[in-house]
Amino acid sequence: MMKDIVVNMIKIYGLTDRDWMSFKITSKRSITYHHIIKTEDGGKTTIRNGALLTKKAHNLLHCIEYNDLAMYKEINALFQIINKNKCGKEELEQIRFLILKYLDTKEPIPKDIERSYTKKMLLECSNENKFKIYV
Ligand SMILES: [Zn+2]
Question: Residues near 18 by Cβ (< 8 Å), separated by ≥ 6?
């Protein structure tokens, strides 16, 4: 069952084919809620504190947290801007850049993520956006 908050956030932010880390959304059911400010740091399970991530992206994000805390914080700061502005073309691009940077290091990644495939997927997304016209 999808959490109500995820359903509400999909309504507010719209459902594109990518999550907030530019991972392809293959099914609505794969979307999870990420706390931008952690529960243990006083973060609430509210729309304002949430980011929408596929399970795969979410696993990668917490893997980044474990291995590169500074980068994890940077990504969350960008989520906060996207959340506040209800969009974030620039921020999504910066997040892709950070993930690519992480994937280029030899830091560990979750088992269900394929390094070169993920890099290709993110670069494709960057290129697509370069040619899109935003109104
Ligand atoms: Zn999370």
Answer: 24, 25, 92, 125
- Domain membership of residue 109 as a residue range: 4-126
State the pTM of this model: 0.92
The Å distance, Cα 131 to ligand 1 centre, comes to 31
Residue 131 resides in a domain? no
pLDDT tens-digit profile of 94-104? 999 999 999 99
Q: Is position 116 within any domain?
A: yes
Tally of domains within the chain: 1
CA of 37 to the centre of ligand 1 (A): 9
Residue 34, domain member (yes or no): yes
What is the distance between the alpha carbons of residues 5 and 96, in angstroms, rounded to a whole number? 25
CA–centroid distance, 127 to ligand 1, in Å, is 27
134 domain-assigned: no
Q: Give me ligand 1 centre to Cα 39, in Å.
A: 10
Residue appearing with tokens 């529960």: 39
